[in-house]
Amino acid sequence: MSLNRSILLLLPLLGAAPASAQTTVTGQPATGGASSATSGGQNAVTRPNTDHAHDDRPAATGTGTNVKLERGANSFTEGEVRRRLERAGYHEVKDLKKDGDGIWHASAMVHGKAASIGLDFKGNVAVQ
After folding, report:
1. Which residue in 37, 82, 78 sits closest to 59, CA to CA?
2. Number of separate helices (H) and strands (E) present in the chain
3. DSSP assignment, residue 64?
4. What distance lies between CA 26 and its chain's CA centroid?
5. Fewer CB within 10 Å: C terminus or N terminus of the chain?
6. C-beta of residue 40 within 8 angstroms of C-beta of residue 30
7. In this structure, what are the phi and psi dihedrals at residue 92, rounded to the nearest 5 degrees?
8. CA quadruple 25, 29, 35, 40: dihedral sign
9. End-to-end CA distance of the chain, in Å?
């Protein structure tokens, strides 16, 4: 069988293969007739994926003093948080700790000044 014929036979099979998607569940599914808006289940489909930020942009979805950090189950490791803060422009990150609300807190330097910063489960970074 020729190579061209083999490729033509395989193309329909590749097109029929199921697509693979990666999801991050952050809420609970709605139960008992409740809507996903009140159960938090909708967060699973609206949470931005900030795991693979580009090197020319900050890893955080929001950086600054006007960002409100959100409470939630935070699955970022200390190393991931440190990298995100550095990509957002913060250096010399110290005293990195996660509080009971799932928000990481640290002290760092930005533009030559000391700052207290936080990072929430969505990847938002804010000066506190």
Report:
1. 82
2. 4, 5
3. E
4. 11
5. N
6. no
7. 55, 50
8. negative
9. 67
* Spatial separation of the C-alpha atoms in residues 30 and 57, rounded to whole Å: 35
Per-residue burial over 3-14, b if 16 or more Cβ lie within 10 Å, else e, is eeeeeeeeeeee
Q: Which two tokens stand for residue 35?
A: 């809507």
Q: Is the dihedral of CA 105, 101, 79, 127 positive or negative?
A: negative
DSSP alpha helix (H) spans, 32-94: 36-39, 43-46, 78-87
Give per-residue pLDDT as tens, 28-48. 666 666 655 555 554 544 454
Q: Which phi-psi region, left, alpha or beta, contains residue 47 (left: φ > 0; alpha: ψ -120 to 50)? A: beta
Residue 3: pLDDT band with limits 50, 70, 90: low
Length of the chain equals 128
pTM: 0.52
- Torsion angle of C-alpha atoms 76, 81, 83, 87, degrees rounded to 10: 110
Residues 6+ apart with CB under 8 A from 111: 89
Other beta carbons within 10 angstroms of residue 67's beta carbon come to: 17
